[in-house]
Design brief:
Elements lengths: L1 H9 L1 H22 L7 H11 L9 H6 L15 H16 L1 H7 L3 H32 L15 H28 L4 H12 L1 H10 L3 H26 L2 E8 L2 E3 L2 E3 L3 E7 L6 H19 L4 H9 L5 H22 L2 H10 L2 E2 L7 H26 L1 H9 L9 H24 L8
């Protein structure tokens, strides 16, 4: 593997792409550390320390996770990639509902470019709304456990400047992601997400060490790292697991040529939905806490504050079943078995032992449902690891080796390594995966 890294850096074109990606990531992390205008950093640090020990510590954990801690610093990149992720998910769901978007999806590269343009517009709108919401809550003291004094002044012009700065930061993040995709290594937005999550790992590990004094803390840290590596191995094993449905294409005449007769397969992954169901479930469970945040004195707000803790059993059980439900829902809308069956029939393909048409469609649905059952249980179990860790070792909600963070770290890392591997193989190198 070390020789493969050396081979990657010996290739001029690939070396240039790697250094370009690292340069963009450096700019990205720098922007995540620069505070927005009108932010009182000294008071903000005090409020963050106070909020992390309160009941509302996990309210913004998802957004703060995807911003690499930039949200709690109210930096110019405070929103991170979350508006883009939300916009992409919304457009993907609307593609199934709106015929116009479905037609664009089938148009190939031109249609995909149009959908990407719509995603950018929606990202801008969401970023404007989210930044306005966070600035308003920081102004009223509701952002961090009723802690006031975060802003130097509450006049309208500085507040508007903060909103525009955070919104512009989101636009810059989109641009940086597209630069990495075009001129760097890997998928740009995925690499940025990977960087922001990886940036929170040292703080998460150190908080586990500080939970126990002396040698006990170091021993606990070593145990957590060992368990984390085992979890990574398990995720790697399942993420690469797939059911290969064989497909046979009959020979046919095209003009004067006899084509076809080949054998291929349809790869159906065990975790066909990726990390999307975890994000869906977290967004749904975020709504009651958000409502209670605006009405803390109401009966519902008091009940949520006492019983709906992100590290409690009720939240964990609801998250477990929501993830399973969203797995089946997302697989149903993302994999169109009818379209796959029609395309196979159109080009003379069939599954051995299965008739073309409706029987093929029913067979694909049957296989997909059988795969989604263990895949959804695996995804829900991984998502519950932070809750179990909190109960076992009193780690905070940003426990690094579990939930959304570890799934994204492993998935993006695996995808990036495969992309580098494919480029090395084009130049007759052995690459990473031997």
């Amino acid at each position: 593997m070390l020789s493969a890294f050396a081979s990657a850096f010996k290739t001029p074109e690939l070396r240039k792409k790697i250094f370009f990606t690292l340069g963009v990531l450096l700019v990205f992390r720098l922007g995540s550390s620069i505070p927005a205008p009108n932010v009182n950093m000294q008071q903000l640090q005090f409020c963050v320390t106070y909020a992390q020990s309160g009941a509302q510590a996990g309210i913004y954990s998802m957004i703060n996770l995807f911003s690499g801690g930039a949200l709690l610093r109210l930096s110019i990149f405070a929103l991170g990639v979350m508006p883009y992720i939300t916009a992409s998910i919304i457009l993907q769901l609307l593609t199934v509902v709106i015929p116009r978007l479905e037609a664009l999806k089938k148009e190939g590269a031109a249609g995909q470019a149009k959908i990407t343009q719509y995603t950018r517009y929606l990202t801008l709108v969401l970023a404007l709304l989210q930044s306005a919401g966070f600035v308003t809550m920081a102004r009223s003291g509701q952002l961090l456990n009723d802690c006031t004094g975060i802003l130097h002044t509450q006049e309208i012009f500085p507040l508007v400047t903060m909103v525009l700065t955070m919104t512009a930061g989101t636009v810059v993040i989109m641009w940086l992601g597209e630069l990495i995709t075009e001129r760097g290594v890997g998928n740009g937005m995925s690499v940025l997400i990977f960087t922001q999550i990886a940036a929170s790992f040292p703080a998460g590990l150190w908080s586990i060490k500080q939970a126990r004094p002396g040698a006990t803390g170091w021993f606990l840290l070593a145990i957590v790292i060992a368990i984390g590596l085992l979890v990574m191995l398990g995720i790697l094993f399942i993420e690469q697991g797939q059911r290969r449905v064989p497909v046979q294409y009959a020979k046919r005449m095209v003009g004067r040529r006899l084509v076809g007769g080949s054998t291929t397969y349809i790869p159906l992954k065990v975790n066909q939905s990726g990390v999307i169901p975890v994000i869906f479930a977290s967004s749904i469970l975020y709504l009651p806490t958000l409502i209670a945040l605006f009405r803390p004195e109401s009966a519902f707000g008091q009940w949520v504050g006492v019983n709906f803790n992100p590290n409690g059993w009720l939240y964990g059980v609801m998250q477990f079943f929501l993830i399973i439900a969203f797995c089946y829902f997302y697989v149903a809308i993302s994999f169109n078995s009818q379209e796959v069956s029609d395309n196979m029939k159109k080009y003379g393909g069939f599954i051995p032992g299965i008739r073309a048409g409706k029987p093929t469609e029913r067979y694909l649905n049957y296989v997909l449902n059988r795969l989604t059952a263990p895949g959804s249980l695996y995804l829900a179990s991984i998502a519950l690891l932070p809750t179990l860790a909190f109960i076992a070792v009193q780690a905070n909600e940003n426990f690094p080796f579990g939930g959304t963070s570890i799934l994204i770290i492993v998935g993006v890392g695996l995808d990036t390594v495969k992309r580098i591997e494919s480029q090395l193989q084009q130049r007759n190198y052995e690459g990473f995966l031997r």
